[in-house]
Design brief:
- The chain has 757 residues and is mainly β.
- The chain folds into three domains: 192 residues, Arc Repressor Mutant, subunit A (Orthogonal Bundle); 274 residues, Neuraminidase; 205 residues, Neuraminidase, CATH 2.120.10.
- Helix content is 9%, strand content 39%.
- The strands form 14 sheets. Strands 11, 32, 33, 34, 55 and 56 form a six-stranded antiparallel β-sheet that branches. Strands 4-3-2-1-8 form a five-stranded antiparallel β-sheet, with helices on one face.
- Helix 1 packs across helix 2 and helix 1 packs across helix 3.
- The longest helix has 27 residues.
- The protein starts with a strand and ends in a 6-residue tail after the last strand.
- 42% of the residues are buried.
C-alpha cells in the first residue's frame, strides 16, 4: 500500500514538519500562529540565502496587502521561540533588504508514520531506501550562504557499483577505494540510524480545553479547592456592577455567592483543609484580608491591607500548605513599593518576607511551593517590566528565575513542585501561558492566543485553570455645548476590534493622536478629528507604547515606551520618522506631557526612590524634580503657573504645585477623581470621569471659579483604570472618552497538563 511522503526540516533541536504544518522540539509541539509558521517555513526553504522583505511578505500573505510591521512581528516572535532554546542564532537581519536563516538545516523526505499520537516505529520518521533507490540527501545551509549536500541515505544502487568494479580505466581504479569507503560509511550510518540511534521522545498528548464559566460579565482569578473538584473565583455579577467571591462545582451550572459587600472583593484562595476561602477587600474604609467559610457564612477580618493598588491582574494571595500562613503583597504608604508579607492565620500578625528595590512597583503574586520550602513571586520594577523570583523560606536571598523583563499576570506551581506556570507578555503585547522548570530557566509556551490569557491556577490533579479575556476599547466623541442635535450625538472615533486609549487633540483641533493595539502591538496612531485617515506613526513592536502627547506647536509628539526593556520618554515628529529617545536612566520614566511654552516635558519617574514628577528640556538635558510627596501623571495649567497631577497609579485625588516652586495643595478628590486616568485640564476647570459604580461611569466638570462639580454625561460602558482615556478639544466643543465597548472574561480548564510534561 502506498504511503504519503512527509517533508521535514531539522535544525538544532527543532523539527519543522512542512506536511503536517508543525514545529516540534524533541517531539513536543511548539504552538505557532499560521502566519508565523508560514514565515518560518519560507525562511527555512531559503536557508543560507537572503530573502527580501517584499518577497517574503508576498509568500506569507499572497494576494493580501499588509504592512511591513506584521512581518517584523512574526520574525520577532520566531526569534524568541528559537533563540530562547539554544545559544545558536537562527534568523539574521540583512539591513535594508530582508532576512536569512543561518542555522544548519537537514532536509528529509520520509514516509508518513501515521496520525500524531499513534505508536511509531523508531525509523518511521526517516527515509527508507532499498538497493535500487537513490541516496537521500539533506541540505545543510551554512552562515556563509553556500549550501552543501550531505549524504544521509543508507542505500546505494548496486548496478552502479558493478559497473565501476568491471571497468579497467585508471579513473575506475582510483574510484574503487572511494566506493568501498562509501559503502562502509553507509553501513555504519545505517547501524547507527536504525539500531543505536536513541528513540525519539513520545509525542505529548493533546491538551483538552473546555470552559469552566461562561457567565455574563467578567469572571477571573480561579482558585482550586484542595480536592480539585471546585473553584472559587471573582465575578462582577449579572448586572456587572460589583466584584464578589463565588464558588462553583466544576461541571455545575450556577455558582454560590459568598460575599455581598459593595466594595470590590478579589483574589480568593482556599485553605488547605477546604473549610475557608481567604480574599482581599479593596476599600479605604473597611478593606483588608478576610476569611469566609467555603460553604457560606460570616466573614472574619484577618488583617488590614493597603487599599490602593496598581491594577495587577492575577491571584495575589497564597495559603501555606500547613494552613498556618497567608502570603500577600502589602505596604504602609503610597511611596513604598509593595513587599510580600506573611500573615498568621491565628493572630493576623504580619512578617515581611521580601524587600524590593526602592522606586520599583514592588512584589506580587506570591505562591508557596507544595513542600513549603520556596516562595515564588513576581518582582515588578515597573508596570510593564517584571520577572519571577524564588525565595528559600529557610533562609537565603531570592533567586531570579526569568530574565524577560516584561509584564506578568499571575503564576502557579505544578502539583509536583518542579515547574511554574505563568502568564507573560514575553512574546509580544498579548499575555499567554508559559511553563518553566525551577532548575532550567527555558520557558515552554502553553498557549497561543490572540486574546489575553492570565491568572493560572493548577489543581492537585494537574489540571490548569486560567482566565481568557475579551476587551475592545474604543474612543468615543461627544458634544459638550448645549445643542443635542445629531451632530453632537456620541460617535466612535476610528474604531477597531482591539484596545485604543490615550487620545489627545492636536493644538489646532484638526487631528487626534492615540495609542492602539490594532496592529498587534501597542503603537502610536494619528487620525483626523472626525476619525478618518488613520495612520500608524510608530513601528516599535514592543510590549507597551502609549501616553501620546502633542507639543504646543503641533509638530512633535512625546510618548512612553518599553523599547529596550526599560520605560523611557521618546519624541517623534508628527509626520513620522525615527523616535528620539529623551531619557536614558535605568528608572521608570513614563506619562509625558509638555509645558505650555514647549520648552519642557514633564514625566513620572522613580529615580528619587519613589514615583515623582520630573521635567526635562524638550531638546534633552539635565532633569529637574517637580514634586516631593508623590507624583505620577499631570498637566501644566493653561497660564503655565501651576502643574496639576495625580500622585500614583490607582490613587484618588488631583493635586497642584506652582511651576516656580512651592507647596503642593489638594484640588479635587470628590468621587475619587484621579483614581481613573480620565481627566483633562482646561483654562477654567477640570473634566474628569469616575466609575464608583463600575457599570455606570459618569463624566463631571469641576470649576476653578466656583469650586463646584456639575454632571456632564452618564455613560453605560466601563472605563479602564490603567490607561489614559479622556481629552477635550481646544475650542471646548468636543470631549473624547475611551469606553470598553466589549469587555468580559471566562475561566477555561486545560486538562492533562501533568501528562504533557
Amino acid at each position: 500500500m502506498s504511503q504519503t511522503l512527509r517533508h521535514l526540516y531539522e535544525f538544532g533541536p527543532f523539527r519543522l514538519d512542512a506536511t503536517e504544518r508543525l514545529l516540534l522540539r524533541d517531539e513536543h509541539h511548539i504552538p505557532l500562529t499560521p502566519k508565523a509558521f508560514e514565515t518560518l517555513l519560507v525562511l527555512v526553504e531559503h536557508g543560507g540565502h537572503v530573502i527580501d522583505k517584499d518577497e517574503l511578505m508576498k509568500k506569507v500573505w499572497p494576494d493580501t496587502f499588509v504592512e511591513e510591521v506584521n512581518l517584523a512581528k512574526n520574525v520577532s516572535r520566531l526569534r524568541k521561540i528559537l533563540d530562547a532554546e539554544q545559544s545558536e542564532h537562527y534568523i539574521e537581519t540583512i539591513p535594508k533588504r530582508g532576512y536569512r536563516f543561518v542555522a544548519g538545516i537537514r532536509e528529509i523526505w520520509a514516509e508518513d508514520p501515521g496520525p500524531i499520537g499513534a505508536q511509531r516505529d523508531n525509523s518511521s520518521l526517516h527515509p527508507r531506501v532499498d538497493d535500487k533507490e537513490k541516496v537521500e540527501t539533506r541540505l545543510e545551509a551554512h552562515s556563509n550562504g553556500q549550501p552543501s549536500f550531505e549524504s544521509t541515505g543508507v542505500g546505494v544502487d548496486k548496478r552502479a557499483v558493478a559497473d565501476l568494479t568491471h571497468s579497467h580505466s585508471f579513473g575506475s581504479i582510483v574510484a574503487l577505494p572511494v566506493v568501498f569507503l562509501t559503502l562502509g560509511a553507509a553501513a555504519a550510518l545505517g547501524v547507527w540510524f536504525f539500531v543505536l540511534r536513541p528513540a525519539p521522545k513520545p509525542p505529548a498528548p493533546l491538551l483538552r480545553i473546555s470552559p469552566v464559566t461562561s457567565l455574563a460579565g467578567t469572571e477571573d482569578q480561579a482558585a482550586f479547592s484542595p480536592d480539585g473538584n471546585q473553584i472559587a473565583f471573582v465575578w462582577n455579577g449579572e448586572k456587572e456592577d460589583n466584584s464578589d467571591i463565588y464558588v462553583k462545582q466544576i461541571g455545575a451550572e450556577r455558582p454560590l455567592r459568598l460575599t455581598t459587600n459593595p466594595a470590590s472583593d478579589t483574589d480568593p484562595i482556599w485553605s488547605p483543609d477546604g473549610r475557608y476561602i481567604a480574599f482581599l477587600r479593596q476599600s479605604a474604609a473597611d478593606g483588608g484580608v478576610f476569611l469566609v467559610p467555603s460553604l457560606g457564612g460570616a466573614e472574619r477580618k484577618l488583617a488590614d491591607a493597603f487599599p490602593y493598588r496598581p491594577v495587577v491582574i492575577g491571584n495575589t494571595l497564597s495559603y501555606s500548605p500547613d494552613g498556618k500562613l497567608l502570603a500577600a503583597p502589602d505596604k504602609n504608604s503610597q511611596q513604598q513599593p509593595f513587599s510580600i508579607v506573611s500573615i498568621s492565620i491565628e493572630t493576623g500578625e504580619k512578617t515581611r518576607l521580601t524587600s524590593p528595590p526602592t522606586g520599583s512597583v514592588g512584589d506580587f503574586f506570591p505562591a508557596f511551593s507544595p513542600d513549603q520550602k520556596t516562595l515564588a513571586f513576581v518582582r515588578s520594577l515597573s508596570i510593564a517590566a517584571a520577572d519571577i523570583y524564588l525565595l528559600p523560606l529557610h533562609g537565603g536571598e531570592p533567586k531570579r528565575l526569568t530574565t524577560d523583563n516584561t509584564s506578568i499576570r499571575g503564576l502557579s506551581w505544578t502539583s509536583d513542585g518542579k515547574e511554574i506556570v505563568f502568564a507573560s507578555r514575553r512574546d509580544g503585547s498579548t499575555y499567554n501561558l508559559w511553563k518553566i522548570s525551577t532548575t532550567d530557566a527555558t520557558p515552554e509556551r502553553l498557549t497561543t492566543s490572540e486574546r489575553d490569557v492570565y491568572s493560572p491556577a493548577i489543581s492537585v490533579r494537574g489540571n490548569l485553570a486560567y482566565t481568557q479575556s475579551m476587551v475592545d476599547g474604543n474612543i468615543w466623541r461627544m458634544g459638550l455645548r448645549g445643542s443635542k442635535g445629531p451632530e453632537n450625538a456620541p460617535l466612535t472615533l476610528c474604531p477597531s476590534t482591539q484596545e485604543d486609549n490615550g487620545p489627545q487633540y492636536s493644538p489646532d483641533g484638526k487631528k487626534t493622536v492615540f495609542a492602539s493595539r490594532r496592529s498587534g502591538s501597542f503603537e502610536i496612531w494619528l487620525c483626523d478629528s472626525d476619525g478618518s485617515s488613520a495612520r500608524q506613526l510608530t513601528n516599535i513592536g514592543g510590549p507597551l507604547t502609549g501616553t501620546p502627547r502633542w507639543s504646543p506647536d503641533g509638530r512633535q509628539i512625546a510618548f512612553d515606551s518599553w523599547i529596550e526593556g526599560n520605560a523611557d520618554i521618546y519624541v517623534i515628529s508628527a509626520d513620522g520618522g525615527k523616535p528620539r529617545r529623551l531619557t536614558y536612566d535605568a528608572d521608570e520614566d513614563i506619562t509625558p506631557s509638555w509645558s505650555r511654552d514647549g520648552r519642557w516635558i514633564y514625566f513620572g519617574c522613580t529615580r528619587s526612590g519613589s514615583m515623582q514628577i520630573w521635567k526635562v528640556p524638550a531638546e534633552g538635558g539635565p532633569t529637574i524634580q517637580v514634586t516631593k510627596q508623590g507624583g505620577f501623571e499631570g498637566f501644566e495649567s493653561a497660564d503655565g503657573k501651576y502643574f496639576y497631577y495625580a500622585k500614583g497609579r490607582a490613587m484618588p485625588g488631583i493635586w497642584r504645585v506652582p511651576v516656580a516652586g512651592g507647596e503642593e495643595s489638594l484640588v479635587l478628590d470628590q468621587h475619587q477623581a484621579g483614581l481613573w486616568r480620565y481627566w483633562a485640564i482646561t483654562d477654567k476647570g477640570i473634566y474628569f470621569a469616575s466609575a464608583e459604580i463600575p457599570s455606570h461611569p459618569v463624566v463631571e466638570y469641576y470649576s476653578f471659579e466656583t469650586n463646584k462639580i456639575v454632571l456632564v454625561a452618564k455613560l453605560d460602558k466601563p472605563l479602564f483604570k490603567t490607561d489614559p482615556g479622556l481629552a477635550v478639544s481646544p475650542d471646548g466643543r468636543w470631549l473624547l472618552i475611551v469606553q470598553a465597548d466589549q469587555s468580559g472574561s471566562d475561566i477555561e480548564l486545560m486538562e492533562n497538563l501533568k501528562g504533557n510534561r
